[in-house]
Amino acid sequence: MAVRETDLRCHELLLRLAGRLPDRRLWRFRDWLAGDAADVVAKMLPGTLVRERIALDDAEHQLLADALAPLGADLAMVNAVLPAEPDAVPQHAFSPERRASSVGDSAVLVLGATLRGRPGVREVRSSWRRDEGGATKLVVLVKASADVVGLTGEIQRILRALGEPAPCVEVLPPELEPTAYHHAALAESVLVCAGAEELAGRRG
To answer: How many CB atoms sit inside 10 A of residue 36's CB?
Structure first.
């Protein structure tokens, strides 16, 4: 079944919020979206952005309206989201080094076994984000051309089953230019496995 255009817009919006919306909230919105509950995303996300004081630039604000208005979002709340200051881009530090983490080790093994050779997937990569206070967080980055919404939900469920309560899963479609957050994570990442598209390219 084809993914609805509104769901793809919501997916893009949530990708743009990675590294800005707290992980504990972002994964939940993605889970709702993958579970055919985009209307819940539309109802809850604008208010969350206002409460968390997360600012959007003009293009992101337009995407917010375009993605959520058809799903019944409160337009007054959409308009209450703060405008971003020029050049106010959050900075994040990443490392390709795998930390001593049972969740991280298990995730790499399970994701490799699950997604290797998967149709619609180009490659799966992992990186470690260093947060304030020195904590590190596994970030899974997937380049995929099919079912990006469902794939996000599937990988999140795998990571939660392995003990990660707020998984960071970034499934990037080919037509979308990665954000600064994703560029930084990809630059400091390691390959977990290749999907069917990448393997076919290597054989060609």
So the answer is: 13
